[in-house]
Amino acid sequence: MCFLMKRGALMRNKLIVLLVLALLAWCGNVFFASMDVKSIAIDKVMPLSFASYEGVDLKLKKYVYEILGSSNVLSRRYTGPNGFQCDVSVVASFSDRLVIHPPEVCMHGGGADVMGKKVVRLCNTDFNYMVAKYSDSLKYYVYYFYGIGNKKRYVDYYRFQIASFINKVMRRSEVAYLFRIVVYEGQEKGLEDFVCALMSNMDVERATN
């Protein structure tokens, strides 16, 4: 009899837990569905021209936006002193954290060999660093981090996702984004000077006002 009573109590506790989880899931869906999603003027994140650098917007193909699931994508090529050149891209979102994912996922899907991933520091900012090599035999040096607003930057994807989720729950109106720089083989010299100049002119919040 005692065994049956304990078993019945255990089943009731499990049922209560399942009902609570189901209720939280339902409330979460209603809560997030009702959130006001602001537009993002993605081209305002960083200036077209700054310091000694000039940028030109790169036109992305339709399938790129479809893969990312967002139109808030900026891709820009900058040139600077002594022939320096690099490509900078920003992918941003208010409502969908899954839009932002590690770049190596797409690179592997595009047929690249990705090597030597590690964390490096440029101009007091931590970046994920890796080397990508495609069939054209050129090496591409990739630097990236995840960010929320102007002050929070992450190299760890999971820490970024947790922080982004908390922001969403707290209804903080800060945009989440992926920031990436690609430097082509032979163009690495001058990168840190470029990063210092860009970081002092970059303003994510300007794109959401």
Largest sheet: 9 strands, antiparallel
Distance between the termini: 67 Å
Round the Cα radius of gyration to an integer and report it.
22 Å
Low-confidence residue ranges: 20-37
Order of helices and strands: HEEHEEHEEEEHEH
Helix content: 25-40%
In terms of DSSP E residues, the strand content is 25-35%
Q: What is the architecture of the largest domain at the second tier of CATH? A: 3-Layer(aba) Sandwich
Query: How many discrete domains?
Result: 2
* CATH fold assignment of the largest domain: Protein Transport Mog1p, Chain A
**Tally of individual helices:** 5
Number of strands: 9
Coarse morphology: globular
Helix/strand/pairing category:
alpha+beta
The level-1 CATH class of the largest domain: Alpha Beta
Mean pLDDT: 78
Kindly describe this structure.
The structure is a single chain. Strands 1, 2, 3, 4, 5, 6, 7, 8 and 9 form a nine-stranded antiparallel β-sheet that branches. The protein starts with a helix and ends in a 10-residue tail after the last helix. It folds into two domains: about 1-35; about 40-209, Protein Transport Mog1p, Chain A. It has helices at about 1-35, 60-70, 105-110, 155-170, 190-200; strands spanning about 50, 55, 75-80, 85-95, 115-120, 125-135, 140-150, 150-155, 175-185. It contains five helices and nine strands, in the order H-E-E-H-E-E-H-E-E-E-E-H-E-H. Residues about 20-35 have low confidence and may be disordered. It is α+β, with helices and mostly antiparallel strands.
